[in-house]
Amino acid sequence: VALLAFERLIIKLALEAMPIRAPFGSWKSPITTGLLTQGKIALSSLKASATGAIFWQEGRPMEKGRNVLVCCSADGDIQDVHAAPSNCRTRVHEYGGASYTLLDQGKSVAYSEFVGQHLQLCTVAGGGEPTVLTAASGGFRYADGRADDARSRLVMVRETEAESPTQVVNQVVSVPYSLSGEAVSAEDIKLLATSRDFYSYPRLSSDGRKLAYVCWNHPNMPWDNTELLVQDLDADGQPEGEPRRVSAGGEESVCQPLWTPSGALVFLSDSTTGFYNLHVVDAGSTSARCLLARPGTEFCSSHQGWSLGLQSFHLLSDDTLICTFGQGGVSKVCTVRVSTGELTILELPDLPPAISEVAVVSATKLALIAGGPHRSAAILTLDLATGNVTKVRDSMSAAPVHDSYLAVPQHIEYPTDNGQTAHAFFYAPKNGDFEGPEGGKPPLLVKIHGGPTAGTSTTFRLDIAYWTSRGFAVLDVDYGGSQGYGREYRMRLRGSWGIVDVADCCNGAAFVAQQGWAASDQLCIDGGSAGGFTTLACLAFRSVFSAGCSLYGVSDLEALAADTHKFESRYLDGLVGPYPGAKAVYVERSPINHVSKFAAPILLLQGDEDKIVPPNQSQMIFDAVKKQGLPCAMIMFEGEQHGFRKSENIQRALEAELYFYSKVYKFETADAIEPVDILNLK
Predict the structure, then answer these.
(1) Phi-psi category of 52—alpha, beta or left, where left has phi over 0 and alpha has psi -120 to 50?
(2) CB 432 within 8 A of CB 408
(3) Which range, 224-233, 586-595, 616-625, is most confident?
């Protein structure tokens, strides 16, 4: 009897542990929209001071998207450098980056205040109020600075504010500072470089007598053709003679210049191998050589050029670099000898596989921002001697999600148009509590990154797990034109935006369906910004997808060319063609001009203060599709700009998209969701 009772208990427990069969999309998941934002922060702009302190920025959705500069002292004490409501964020190039600069060995910091875009100065340990360094109504933005402590000044990029992109001027300037906090006058700020359309990476040599910087002119973007110039400086730090180019020039993208103490200048260039590899101008030389030729390897992130100040290699010693590089979504850490190019890949089994930033704390200690498919991005320290990894700050304060709810990305290559292959990461549905109907196949959500010249990431993606844990398959596409696969792949989009990206996304969805990984009649697509354009173009010009969601996406290329900021005001010259000369191409590729070809339901999500993709573009496509009689919905988010920063809006956007698909594909969501007003849905 006892044995029989025990067997029944075992059977009962086994049945309780068995997954429940339920329609795809209706699975109950612990990964809620609240989990995505509750206690979640965006980590960026990692730096380390000479005293062993670590600095970074946190984007906090729960504080209305405020960006906060944070410091972890050498003793491990973590504190906000400035109190609310101060917001450390620059709008140089609109996308910003490198919003703060360490002064006096990290004892003080200068940063851009978002409201007013002026510079403020504060002490790290003082706890006092920041003092205004430049005029709050001066009409200038500042970013990507370096301290010239010997001359008590900052060397940085400055951008004027103006109504028209043609009136915006970018320069490299010096801004004097006093640690006692006195404001500077406009006359005290000196020009160090001007006449080019754009500047980035102003970097002083250790002796203060040379200034290196990257520059480029319209219609190029930083990943197209840029130059690395070196300007001699006099004893007062002012330009002496004309700057000289040390990069190859022509069809070449350069970035991330870094001086060694002995006067060598190391930087990244794609001129030798077609990939961002290390190059160097040796001390006393006037021309560059390839330091390390490694075809197929990119020594930079997939967002190079979009955010100012990104640096993927640093000095461990005068002749040794510590570098990160990535292939197929996996990052590696290595050392490279500047004198010989000798590369040593470090075996670090405890380090997450996706590294976005690195900083040198000491000769034996690194700080990193890293994560993985099952590990949220975090500030980590790495002991180079032992390989030990210590967590300093996690991007999520919530309890970890169990692996049974997290899909593992699979890097795939698949055939696309013109006999080429494209790249993507496939995520199968994953929920330990549920499985789909016997013989059934899940809906597939194809996700399109923005840019378009950017790339996706495999770092812990709760925004993807939200879908896969509910029974969706996800294909995260790095279409032709994406970064991370070399110059040739990046240049596939030259003159072909709306063609190559559309083909790669449609062919990727078809490939997944052909493999039997998803239902061919339930293929949907979403994307933000440039990804929103690709979403709309796929729905207008192809019949692969049965639903789509555009987040602040472009629908009218002509309107975008006429109404955007300076950084991207000539971007479309390379992606589509010079305007108005190529007007016919703009008209032909703009989804707004082909609403009669739309045949699938559409959801549009838009911020009403977006300056990069103005709200009228989403309104135009919504009005046209509504008139066409197609199922459609639009939500305009008050106070949001390009990309949603407020937690309540991030949550609402994701839930609205799930609700939208539930009505299109006829399944019931496991959780109650605020309804979306879908017009023309029968």
Answers:
(1) left
(2) no
(3) 224-233
